[in-house]
Amino acid sequence: GAGVSQSPRYKVAKRGQDVALRCDPISGHVSLFWYQQALGQGPEFLTYFQNEAQLDKSGLPSDRFFAERPEGSVSTLKIQRTQQEDSAVYLCASKERRGPSSYEQYFGPGTRLTVT
Amino acid sequence: DAKTTQPPSMDCAEGRAANLPCNHSTISGNEYVYWYRQIHSQGPQYIIHGLKNNETNEMASLIITEDRKSSTLILPHATLRDTAVYYCIVRAGGPGAQKLVFGQGTRLTINP
């Protein structure tokens, strides 16, 4: 079946622009996560949704970062007034809440954001 | 979540077993050991997890020491496609637990 998809795959933004990154999780997956991965580093947690509820946003680096999942399916990560330090790959992952695969997070290919 | 320590890089010959170590000396009784890998330009991929017993699946084996302070991921017959960064993650709880805390991982290179 279809995996997690993200769009766009690549985004170049001028400093100060707003960007919106989209994540389509696996159908039926209740849990959705966003991670940020800087070059040469491991992914770092940003935020977590269970259905439409954002249960953990402790990893969002500043109030310029905002995530939503209004209908409990597709999620959007928005970054306002982008800065150069926002340049990274943004990964989305989804997970079942229960069942034999509920221990596994399924990751999308990521969106590479470059801020110039 | 407990901190893990992994070597930054390893090499292995194609067809041989790749043994990737991970130290997690501060692991708690309810914390699981998870392994993910990330092939270049892709998102991380789940490999295997365990609590205290050794585990095996179609991808790999996980050996956890009796005191649970370290573990080894074994890829029994490494192929070129196994070249990736391998992350050892220790996390509280089972399937219901949430975020993953990645470290730097081990960059494994499989050589022909």
The average pLDDT value of chain A, as a whole number, equals 94
Most extensive chain-chain interface: A-B, 26 and 22 residues
The N- and C-terminal alpha carbons of chain B lie at a distance of 37 Å
Helix content range of chain A: under 10%
The low-pLDDT segments of chain B are none
Number of helices of chain A: 0
Class from secondary-structure proportions of chain A: mainly beta
Overall 3D form of chain B: globular
The number of E-state strands of chain B comes to 9
User: Rg of chain B from C-alpha positions?
Assistant: 13 Å
* Largest sheet entry of chain B: 5 strands, mixed
For the terminal residues of chain A, how far apart are their CA atoms? 37 Å
Strand residue percentage of chain B: over 45%
Structural class category of chain B: mainly beta
Helix segment tally of chain B: 0
- Shape type of chain A: globular
Rounded to an integer in angstroms, the radius of gyration calculated over CA atoms of chain A is: 14 Å
Sheet-strand content of chain A, in percent, reads over 45%
What does it look like?
- The complex is a heterodimer of chains A (116) and B (112).
- Chain A is an all-beta fold.
- Chain A has no helices and eleven strands.
- Chain A has strands spanning 5-7, 10-13, 19-24, 31-37, 44-50, 53-56, 65-68, 75-79, 88-95, 106-107, 111-115.
- In chain A, the strands form two sheets. In chain A, strands 2, 4, 5, 6, 9, 10 and 11 form a seven-stranded mixed sheet that branches.
- The mean pLDDT of chain A is 94.
- Chain B contains no helices and nine strands.
- Helix content of chain B is 0%, strand content 46%.
- The mean pLDDT of chain B is 92.
- The termini of chain B are far apart.
- In chain B, the strands form two sheets. A five-stranded mixed sheet of chain B has the order 1-9-8-3-4, with no helix packed on it. In chain B, strands 2-7-6-5 form a four-stranded antiparallel sheet, with no helix packed on it.
- With 112 residues, chain B is mostly beta strands.
- Chain A binds chain B through residues 4, 31, 33, 35, 41-45, 48, 55-56, 59, 91, 93, 97-98, 102-110, and chain B through 32, 34, 41-46, 49, 85, 87, 94-96, 98-105.
